[in-house]
Each structure stands twice: as C-alpha cells, then as structure tokens.
Amino acid sequence: MVCRVILASTSPFRRELLARLQIPFETAKPDTDESALPQEAPADTARRLAEAKARAVAQRYPDALIIGSDQVAAHGSERFGKPGKRENAIAQLRLMRGKEVVFHTGLCLLNSATDRAQVCCVDIHVGFRDFSDAEIESYLDKEDALNCAGSAKSEGLGISLLAYLRGDDPNALVGLPLIALCNMLRAEGVVLP
After folding, report:
1. What pLDDT is stored for residue 193 in this prediction?
2. Which of 33, 44, 70, 130 is flagged as catalytic?
3. Is the separation of the CB atoms in 62 and 3 below 8 Å?
4. 70 catalytic residue (yes or no)
C-alpha cells in the first residue's frame, strides 16, 4: 500500500479540511492552467482540473496518493471564480444575490505508483439571500473573501449572506469533499476510523 499522501494544493482551506482526517500529508503546488475549455460544462471543468492538479505533481511523488481538487461556481452560463479584488467581489455578490449558485467541486485521488485515478464531482446548491449593497459592503469590510470562489466564505461570516445550502457534503463548499475523499482513500487501502 502507498503510504505517502500529497495534497496538490497550496490552499489553506483545503489543508485545514484534510487535517481533519488526522493522516500525515504533505502539500505541493500544482502548476496548472485553470482556464475552462470552450463549451466545457462547469462540473466537467472541476473534474478535469482536479485530475490535472494531481497529475501535475505526480512526477515529483512517484509512489504516493495525490489529492487534487478544484471548484467552479456557476449560475446558468455565469461562472464565479476567486475575485482577487474588492470591486470584483462586489460585482460577484450583486450578480449572485437572490439566486441559486451551484458550486461544483471536483476531486481526484491519483495513485502515482499504479496511475489509478478516482475522479468525481460533488455539487452544493447555495441559495443567496436578496441582500442589499450596504450588506455587501459591510460583509467585505469584516471578512477577507477575495481568495474564495463566489466571494462568500460559508465557514465564516459569509454564512449570513446565504438562504440555504443543499448537498451531500458541506466540506465540498469549502473546497474539499471529505466524504468522497474518505471513500477514495479506503479504496486505496488507507485505514480511517
């Protein structure tokens, strides 16, 4: 059995989530182009990029279980990435208010020794309240959500902007579907409680 676990991500959110499983792991930066392909559905983008991230670090770790994950938030044809700047976050939140946005979180567990890749996508449906511009400004004054897809951190104050969350694993919204990951790790022989 492969014992080394690598998280192909520098995200502090994914690192915190994986630490909950109490298994030793390392992190590695996956240098990948995160652009969607033309006409690619959001869930397909999330799955493809999750696997691409895992494969991007596989040569450095030839005998490891490598975890890749990516998230694409979408409402219809509109996609919401990490805003990066306050004005982008304001624009995103204005577009999302009063709507349901689906956060597609792709997950890949790659066994680099056997080249076996388990890949899935876990969707979380998020209903945003019809909040005011003043609430957007107040929220962004209090919480740094510029590195968060969709500009609202559900694990923090961003929960106050939401009307509901629907899905199989709330961890997927933060960036790493732990329930699916546990099943994948067990399939590779990792013992979890």
Report:
1. 86
2. 70
3. no
4. yes
135-144's contacts with Cβ under 8 Å and 24+ in sequence apart are 135/161, 136/90, 136/93, 136/94, 136/97, 137/90, 139/93, 140/86, 140/89, 140/90
In a domain, 152, yes or no: yes
Cα distance between residue 4 and residue 101, in whole Å:
36
Statement: residue 150 has pLDDT above 80: yes
Q: Copy the structure tokens of residue 128.
A: 């945003």
Residue 193 in any domain: the answer is no
- Cβ neighbors of 116 (< 8 A, separation 6 or more) are 110, 188
* Pairing, β 116-128 against β 100-111: antiparallel
pLDDT mean over 31-46: 94
**Hey, what amino acid is at 65?**
L
Encoding tokens for residue 9?
């991500």
Q: How many domains in the chain?
A: 1
Each residue of 157-173: b (16+ CB within 10 Å) or e?
ebeebbeeeebebebbb
pLDDT digits (tens, 9 = 90+) for 152-184: 999 999 999 999 999 999 999 999 999 999 999
Assess if residue 173 is contained within a domain. Answer: yes
Write out pLDDT tens, residues 45-85: 999 999 999 999 999 999 999 999 999 999 998 999 899 99
Q: How far is CA 184 from CA 49, 67, 87, 101, 119, in A?
A: 18, 10, 39, 27, 9
In a domain, 192, yes or no: no
